[in-house]
Design brief:
By secondary structure, this protein is of the alpha+beta class. The chain has 2 domains: 2-67 and 211-263, no CATH class; 74-206, no CATH class. It is 19% helix and 32% strand. It is built from 8 helices and 16 strands. It has helices at residues 64-67, 75-78, 94-101, 127-132, 146-156, 166-171, 179-186, 223-226, and strands spanning 2-6, 11-14, 18-24, 27-30, 38-46, 57-59, 62-63, 105-111, 115-121, 136-143, 205-206, 219-220, 228-237, 240-243, 247-250, 257-263. A 7-stranded mixed β-sheet has the order 1-16-5-13-14-15-12. The chain has a 4-stranded antiparallel β-sheet with strand order 9-8-10-11. Strand 14 (240-243) and strand 15 form a beta hairpin. Bound molecules: zinc ion. Zinc ion (ZN) binds next to strand 7. Pfam families: DUF2797 (PF10977). InterPro entries: DUF2797 (IPR021246).
Amino acid sequence: MEYTGVLKKMKTENLDTVQYYLDMKTDFLNMNQLLQREIELAFVTYECLHCHLEKEIYRQGFCKSCFFDIPTTGDWIMRPELSKAHLDEEDRDLEYEKKVQLQPHIVYLANSSNVKVGVTRKSQIPTRWIDQGAHEAIEIVEVPNRYLAGITEVALKEHVADKTNWRTMLKNDIVDEDLTIWQQKLRGFIPEEAQEYFVENNKETNIQFPVNKYPVKPKSLNLVKEKTYKGKLVGIKGQYLIFEDDTVFNIRANEGLVVKMVIA
Ligand SMILES: [Zn+2]
């Protein structure tokens, strides 16, 4: 079987084990069914996810000119505390910013390699946690806009990590934590404006990833440089494909690459 398409992050479904789907233009592949199969990947070209031109990818699947122009990559995406739609102030496209920022947001704790704080739209739960490879996560506050989530995250970052280690996550070198205790511990550090949105009597969400064999020394595949790679798929965690020889391939970090995939 042979498929060619532009990489976009895998869609997921949180069943007993996470189900992963890769959209390859003409086919929609359930990646779980490819476990234990030999997969060959080849770099074909680039295709910007916005303008669809054959231009080198700069960040997040976009070419450089699109990245600095389109409303979906404003600074407030990575730094939610910079959100201004609630003040009726435009960054790149006020209508778009209102639609995205003025909706329920969650500040959460997720444990993938360590406990970290993060922000996402409520509609992105548990997708965001799955994409990070978190085996457990919990909501701290549910606020009505992105700005409130951002300032809460900034305040909590003083007391808990906001970064994870992808190697530790992939090696599954993890510690189970009681996130309800963490949530209570951080309660006092939530800014005044967001205190009323604390999620009471909350329970952890646990996530099971389809991994048969964790890598001992994960090495990241640079498909643009290597051009081709072939290996047996033994697991999927976060947005990473894990192969038997410890090679890992981050689909999300390779968005915008057109690849050919051959399944033996
Ligand atoms: Zn573009």
